[in-house]
Write the structure tokens for this entry.
Amino acid sequence: MRIARSIAELGPGKRAVAIGTFDGVHLGHRRVIQATVDSGLTSTVVTFDPHPRVVLGTHVELLTSTTRRLELVDGLGATEALILPFTLELARATPEEFADWVLRPLGARVIVAGSNFRFGCGRSGDLGSLRAMGFDVRPVPLLEEVSSSIIRQLLRAGEVVSSARLLGRPPELDGMVVAGWARGGTLGFPTANVQVKPELLVPAHGIYAGAVGEHRAAVSIGTNPHYGGEERTIEAFLLDFEGDLYGRRLVLELWRRLRDERAFESEQELVDQIAADVEQTRLAVPPVSAQ
């Protein structure tokens, strides 16, 4: 998939365009993007960075980084993605100005969006506005109870299986491996300490079964109460893996929440519990996604 940060980089063409933040690239987003792929025109996904709500002063915990969002969009077969810098000037644009600044120069012939799509200053534009401007508008019916906001609520509660049904894939943690306390290695379970960007949502504290690529992973999210920790950490023990992960980016799939984190009476009790968590991870299966 071609990725551009300006319309000029893409050049002329006849395009079917999907517009949105697409945070999480959930099942509803996938339907919209698939409709552009099926149009027969160049499938173009227009998205924004940073998230519009952040620019407008609203805190939002993102489900996906821009990098991961584009990887997921690429996996759906889109031809190209345009990342528009979301600025206050763009936020103040009327629907007509947005069409003149973005859609017409882009060569948009078809606009695909969810039936509740809004755009322009004060969310004053909708699909009817685009149709009145002469675009071929193709609304995609909404999926009931599928939204980035609902997925955020589920993940804050540790409901990774329910989240997967709405995402169409397991929820993920995306971050870089950095130096940690190295306690896991002394216990016989060396872990990768994963640092995620502060704007990304991290699910509820607890122990999870999941995977990194072809390796299953037991993942701890929390403060390590057994050692009196206060700062949140994310640690992943990759089963049957040997090698150095420092400095690498990991995308951790979360399949199932195994238990709460807690302190133990002894180090041996902790080791026994980790061994049990690893065994449950070995037996875990990916959550079933709604289609």
